[in-house]
Structure formats: C-alpha cells, structure tokens
Amino acid sequence: MIATAGSTVPKFPSDFLWGFATASFQIEGAVNEDGRGKSIWDDFSRIPGKTLDGRNGDVATDSYNRWKEDLALLREYGIKAYRFSIAWSRIIPVGGRNDPINPKGIEFYSKFIDGLLEAGITPFVTLYHWDLPQGLHDRYGGWLNKEEIVQDYAHYARVCFQAFGDRVKHWLTLNEPWCTAILGYGRGVFAPGRSSDRNRSPEGDSSTEPWIVGHSLILAHAHAVKIYREEFKPTQGGQIGITLNGDWAIPFDDSPENVEAAQHALDVAIGWFADPVYLGFYPEHMKKMLGERMPEFTAEEWTVVKGSSDFYGMNTYTTNLIKGGGDDEFQGKAEYTFTRADGTQLGTQAHCAWLQDYPEGFRALLNYLWNRYKLPIFVTENGFAVKDENSMPLEEALQDHDRVEYFRGATQALMSAVMEDGVDVRSYFPWSFLDNFEWADGYSTRFGVTYVDYETQKRYPKESAKFLVKVQTSPCVKSHP
Ligand code: GBH
C-alpha cells in the first residue's frame, strides 16, 4: 500500500539493526588451533578441483587470530550489529552429544561477544553455517541420519545457549538449509560433495538424499528452538529463528505456464522450508513432484516444526526470470534466466553467473514474504561480487562502483518496502564484512565491503563500506525521538 495524505506513514524503526555478516569457515582459518575439530569443509576444500582456484579454508582471513583487528574495524565503521557464525567443531570438536566440549572454543567466542558488546555492537549469531563436524559425517552420515543428527545438533545448540545466551539475544539456527541439502547432497558442489554424478562424487543419490537432508535440517532447527523457548527464553529473553536463501522469481512472460512455474520455483527455493516452519505444511508442488521421495512429518513432529521461528530470516541476492519446463527438481522443474524476451539483461552482471543486480525484485520479495508468512523480517544477507574484482589492482578494486550501485538500489528498495508498503523489516546485514573464502569459488570471487589482501591479510575499506556506513546514519533512517 502506498501511503497517501491522511494515512499513517510507517516509520523506520529506531532499533533497526544495520550491520555486516560473515561465517566461521569463510573467515576464521586457524583450523588446527586450540582444539578445533575438523569440519566437512576442511578436507573437501583440499581435494583438487573442488574450489575454482584450488585454495582451501586453512587460513581464510585469519580472523580467529585477528579478531581484535576485525573488531576495531567494525567499531570504526560504527555499525550497530554484526552477524557471525559459531564453528560447531570448535565448541564440540567431534560434534556429538556425548563428546567432550572444548573450553578454548567457548572462550574464543565468549571474548569476541564481550568485545562486540563493549563496542556497542549487537551480536547476531548463526549456530550453523555449513561447517558440520567431520566426526559426525564419519560416525553416521551427518544430516542423512535424522535420529542422530537432530539430537546432536540440539545438544550443541543448548551448549551455545548456556555459554552465550546471557549476552546473545538474536539467534539463527541454520543458514540456508536449501544450500546444505541441494549443493551438498544434490549437485555435489559443496561439502560433503555427494551426488548421483559419478564423475563428481564417489557416493550419493541426488534423487533422494537432498530431501532426506532437508527433512533432518527442519527437525534439527525446530528442536533447537523448542529447547531455547522452554529452557532459556524465559530468563534470557532473546529471539530465535532460521534464515533461508531465496531470490525473487518473475514469470518470463504472462503465459499461464510461466506464471505457474514462477510460483513453483519459489515453492522449492523458499516454501520447502518456510511453509513447514511458518505454516505447518509442505508445498503441494513439492509433494506432487517428489511423491514418495518427500519425507513426511509425524503429527508429533509437526507440533514441534509448525511455528518454530520467531521471525523470517531472509538471505537474498538476485531475481530470476522463470520459464516452465526442464527436469531440474532443485529449481522446481522451472528454468531460470536473466535474459528478457526482448533480449535485454535484467540487471548488471556480477562475477558469479547466478547474480545480477535487480533491486525491484528485493522489494517484491520483501512484500511476498511479509504477506505470506506475516512475521517481522530480518534481512541477514544481501550482497554483490563485482565482476573481475580479484584481478584488479588494489586501488581499482576499492572503487567498487557496481557494488555501491547494488547497495544503493537495495537500501532504497528496503526503505520503500518499510515506509511505503508497510513491511516490518528489522535488520539489514550486507554480505560481507570482509572478502573471504567463497566456498567452491575459493578466493576468486570477492563479496566483501572490505578488501582483504590475502598475502598480507591487510584490510582496506571499499567505497561500498563507506556508502553503507553513510546510509545507516542518513536522516531518513535516523532514530525517531
Ligand atoms: C550465501 O548464499 C551464503 O550464505 C554465503 O556463505 C555466501 O558467501 C554468499 O551467499 C555469497 O555466495 O547455481 O545451483 O550453484 C547465497 C545463496 C544459493 C547463491 C545458491 C548461489 C547458486 C545455485 N546461494 N546459488 S547453483
């Protein structure tokens, strides 16, 4: 709804969390320090051919050792909040509910959280950003084993609530379960690298495993939330939810087939997780598409799953044009393109093939999620990788014009969604605070608002960091008295 004279114009919330985001394996390095156990990404990223530049996560941005320097930079930026993730295998090196807890791991995050709070920065903590303890993968197949993983994850979550919940009031259970399931067990491009493609993966079954893994992920999330709400929330008083990836889907044209396909694309990208968690059912399209391969929840499980998130956690990067057809189940049997019917491109192309800049899609998706799930939205990731930034000289890379334009469009879309459409948005965390280990891309794709020179580990603010710091203090988003 567009606000008109006489109607109440929604205000921009004064406690809105502006910040930056990162994830443990992408920045920490120090994989053998202070008793950390291996994660599934350790060895996977060392296998030749698994990352574009052949590099791994052993050092990354060395943030485990340089956390004070990172904190000083966050403080210099003057942002209000910082989203980071905890490495499960630093807290419980082997991972399981009967395995030893590592006090050094707890101490590391505890000190970091204290440092953030002293700097007036709100910690926004992800419990799981893809770095499953290798020990659990070896012991029982990790996410493929629902009975075990749900209990082990719930135990790990409880340990974190106990250790950090007196100071952390914003929790995310899982980052982007779609990626864990599809990229790790369907396409085989992420750890643990399972798929049906025997040229790529020695083991795996892309037709069944992703759906089994998705099911375990939903239950693990829901049980952690149940524990938080029953044992911690009454005294600690924080909020907890899941964060999902999802990009806006526009029908390629207005043919009924393509209009339907766009909804199907959203059903698999978002509804697979959001419909069970927020509404209490799986999307019809998925049930039809997968038949007996779609694991069902028991009545008892549904009572834990339905309503298991206090807010909508949203990671979004782009918009796709959707055509019906094709047999890619991971896209809902729809085809994705950025090329319009008239041959033009949707927006500016990023370094990654899957990403173009289209701010209108961000606004549309915020409205879609608000109308469908009716909960406050925390935008926990949004960002852009400038084409060929990695091969530019430093001075040129710091002038990241396309990223600035991306964030200009995105923050304007965000303002419009809040102030004109009345969408309840509570945070905006650009991805990422630093250039970092970009998973299967290695270090060749840079998403940071801060440039990292991997030779020296020196950090340099890009134009986009300066732009975003300015936006959050601009008059229209300043606190209302
Ligand atoms: C985020 O995922 C991650 O949370 C973050 O760790 C990462 O660094 C950041 O994006 C930048 O990539 O072509 O089939 O491989 C973003 C969601 C979903 C975007 C999968 C890329 C590729 C699908 N991602 N998508 S495919």
Describe the overall structure.
This protein has a single domain, classed as Alpha-Beta Barrel (TIM Barrel), CATH 3.20.20.80. The chain has 16 helices and 13 strands. The strands form 3 sheets. Strands 1-2-3-4-5-7-10-11 form an 8-stranded parallel barrel, surrounded by 6 helices. A hairpin with a 4-residue loop joins strand 12 and strand 13. Helix 7 runs parallel beside helix 9 and helix 8 runs antiparallel to helix 9. It starts with 16 loop residues before the first strand and ends in a 9-residue tail after the last helix. The mean pLDDT is 97. The site of ligand GBH has 15 residues, from helix 8.
Structural class: alpha/beta
Number of domains as seen in the coordinates: 1
What ligands does this structure carry?
A: ligand GBH
> How far from one another are the termini?
25 Å
Cα radius of gyration in angstroms: 21 Å
The chain-level mean pLDDT equals: 97
Question: Order of strands in the sheet with the most strands?
Answer: 1-2-3-4-5-7-10-11
Q: What is the 3D form? A: globular
CATH fold name? TIM Barrel
What is the CATH superfamily classification? Answer: Glycosidases
**SSE order, one letter for each helix or strand:** EHHHEHHEHHEHHEEHHHEEEHEHHEEEH
Task: Please tally the helical runs, counting DSSP H or I stretches of 4 or more residues.
Answer: 16
pLDDT under 50 segments (min length 5)?
none
Report the CATH C-level class. Answer: Alpha Beta
CATH architectural arrangement: Alpha-Beta Barrel
GO molecular function, one term: cellobiose glucosidase activity
Function: Plays an important role in cellulose degradation. Shows hydrolytic activity against several glycosidic compounds.
Keywords: Carbohydrate metabolism, Cellulose degradation, Glycosidase, Hydrolase, Polysaccharide degradation
Family: Belongs to the glycosyl hydrolase 1 family.
